Amino acid sequence: MDQLQLAEMVEKYLRGELSEAERGSFEIMRRNDPELDQMVVEYHFFLEEMDRYGEIRRFKSNIYDTHETLQENGLIKELRIKTKAKIINMWSRYRRVVAVAASIAGITALFISGMMTIFSPNAPIRDIEELRRKVTSLEKQSSNQRVEFNKFKTKIEPGASVKFGGTSFMIDPKGFLVTSAHVLKDAKMVYVENQDGEEFKAEIIHTDPLSDIAILKIHDEDFKAPKQLPYGFSRNATELSEPVYTLGYPKDEIVYNEGYLSAKSGLDGDTLAYQLAISANPGNSGGPVLNKNGEVIGILNARQASANGVVFATKSKNIYTLLNELKESDPDLNIKLKNNSSIKGTDRSHQVRKVQDHVYMVKVVLG
Q: I need a surface site. Which of 115, 146, 207, 341 has the fewest CB within 10 A?
């Protein structure tokens, strides 16, 4: 029996089109042939997915038919985009239709990714994981676009070359932020964005390449300064194996990671940094590293995240040192670091809810 005949037999078996004798004979073959059994399992899954895909296509067709009927009856007007200025208003009026379309696109993408996984069993795991991340990103973008599309407008000029590659966090409620100096490389202008998608223009106050620390100041009329920060800044050394966590923007939403202190010095014995066993990537650079008491012990430096499978963090005491040096050269620079943490003794989820409001994505407009 060749492959085509075997495939036809498998389909008839799954469709229940075999006689009782043929079915019994086929099941004996299936028990004795692992490859045939695997083929039945895969083909069964394939048929189920094709049926689902057909349902999606029929559902989509019904939506289009309904839309045409409503349009013919004068219940909705035909979409005619004449100018770019009308796009936002049309989104508001037709966002329900777009939301359905986005959902269908997401489901279709999942179907395609499933098929690729089935028919490419020898594909590298990292490629499959990359595909899965892209599909997840597509689903999230579809969801976020229909909710956030018209919520906030970017303040960055159209056509500007923008690098989305870092995190910052507040050190003073007056709008002062700290990040890693390398995040601001080649920056012409800097914008920061909070977890709600609000964007603010920021000014670079100072950068120190040696400690890899930079100070920013939000200068934006839309910025509302918080009354106080929930976390404090630790001057004390952190002990080995002490649990730590961080918040940052490796993607378009804030991400939490946890780990522990694995060494009291950084790369090549750098005494200005800690070594951490924690998951991070370059987008986390500049994010806060906090201990169990909700105290900032360092600034995550994910620039060296690939070095020996570990991550490094600039110690928080370097922030104190840098600010003292700045005050000597500029006495009017009034930045006060909070020593005590108001979230000490609370559970981790409560700490994260409080801290994340003061962590910002960094957007660098390149010069």
A: 115
